[in-house]
Amino acid sequence: MGEIKVSPDYNWFRSTVPLKKIIVDDDDSKIWSLYDAGPRSIRCPLIFLPPVSGTADVFFQQILALTGWGYRVIALQYPVYWDHLEFCDGFRKLLDHLQLDKVHLFGASLGGFLAQKFAEYTHKSPRVQSLILCNAFSDTSIFNQTWTANSFWLMPAFMLKKIVLGNFASGPLDPEMADGIDFMVDRLESLGQSELASRLTLNCQNSYVEPHKIRDIPVTIMDVFDQSALSTEAKEEMYKLYPNARRAHLKTGGNFPYLCRSAEVNLYIQIHLLQFHGTRYAAIDPSMVSAEEVEVQKISLHSSNEQEEQ
Question: Which of 77, 90, 104, 270 is the most buried (most CB within 10 A)?
């Protein structure tokens, strides 16, 4: 078990991509941790926001693949923020610090909710060029925890971890999914009490997305057909909220498809970002586009043909 942590890909990632720590708030205990990889000339990169249990390195397979194709990607780990407005303000300051005017956001679960809230927060002076929402939700009330959200800060770390682990898949799983869960459990163990308590607070405090403020942003909704922490109702709500969104469905992948179905996830990310090639919002080095784009279109065509045949 724990195959991912000792895999050559993960070790290569850790040895080649440095983890940076940045403080943008007056409170110097609020530290953003991030991996920034790919060509610095790109001014509209793809930024990954993790779920409650995740650290920045849960997206290492996306970083390795996408930078290899010429994209600039940044994977983040949040400081301790206790409300959505505070998070959005801190994230805006981080983008200012990185000198990034607009970005594409890939948000997983809580990360997806925060990505939508940030797009909503900056709607008058837009900072989000597009959204990829993976197993994401638009209303925190789906977790039925809004009444406990204000007490997470009091709970010891082991209780908070137990709450998070309760949403992980159980029962028989294929080896890749089992490895993905093992890796996420390991990442969860690395988070301190205040990090976990603040993330659970953001995940559960009463809030919802106001779609009219972000309806013009291109969206891809990525979700799975097998067991995940999201209910069918929550998924349906997302489809209703974004009727024009592209849909990226994975037959399997559970809560963490970016770990256990990384090739499919990476393909869907490329397809999403294709629409910006050749514009100032491209997340890819222009010199890498032609061959890469043709290859993606071939794979995309082949995959859609296969789906039609099934």
Answer: 104
Q: Which tokens belong to 183?
A: 């890796």
Q: What is the pLDDT of residues 263-307, one digit of tens each?
A: 999 999 999 999 999 899 999 988 887 666 656 665 665 665 455
Range of the structural domain that residue 193 is part of: 4-309
**CATH number, position 153:** 3.40.50.1820
Residue 122 near residue 89, CB atoms below 8 Å: no
Task: Count structural domains, the chain.
Answer: 1
N-terminal to C-terminal alpha carbon distance within the chain: 34
Measure Cα distances from 147 to 117, 151, 214, 233 in Å.
21, 9, 28, 21
What are the tokens at 65?
Answer: 């693949």
- pTM here is 0.92
In angstroms, the CA 83 to CA 252 distance is: 33
Enumerate the β-bridge partners of residue 49: 107
Alpha helices in 129-192 (DSSP H): 157-165, 175-189
From the number of C-beta atoms within 10 Å of its C-beta (0-12, 13-18, 19+), residue 152 rates as buried
Q: Tokens 């970016």 belong to which residue?
A: 258
